[in-house]
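just leaving the lab so this will be short. below you get a single protein, a line of residues and a line of whole numbers that encode the local backbone shape. id like you to explain what the token line says about the fold, in plain words if possible. thanks a lot i owe you, the record is right below:

…
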Amino acid sequence: MKQPLLKQSQPNLLENRCPSCLFMQLEGVLVQPDQIDLYLTINFDIQCESLPQGKMAFGLKGGKLQLRLENGKIHHQFRELTGLLTLVPQKEGQQLVTCQVRTKGSQKNPAWDFAVGPEQPVLQGLLQKTKLATLDAIAFPCSVEATFDVSVQNIYLTEVEGLWPANLSTNQLVILERGIAQVLSKRKLKPYLSRIELQFDNKE
């Protein structure tokens, strides 16, 4: 019996809420009638924000990529994006940044934790169409929802100008920076920073 071919719909949703800070894409390549290779493109950088009293810039120390699968599963041995990776610089003079990636979660809800290496304060650079994992389709339509989430602890202020006096103590600065990170998280980065939905179905 001839197995049906599959097709990928265009992303039902592609949302990057702070694209200068994090831009994410996810693609599916059909390699078998019931297997889909998922490829991740993700770019990290500094995002600048203008405020009435001044300006600030922030980046990410880490974050979590979470997949939610419907009619599909990803075995642990088929999660290929893991270990110590080097992000490709996208600006002249930008230093190489390493990124530690660890995978966790169940077969239906796998996750990848990203963390900046010790040599730099924030993630900066690109992973271009890097194989994330192989998805086994159980039935069709098969859908993938991907979100990239960050916590307050993942936010790092790289520049602050005009928001407070220059003679503050270190402890005062820490408290103020933590407060700004909490406001950023609530207003811009929650419930997620990026979100993508893909769906695969049978051809008629």
Notes: The chain has one domain: 16-196.
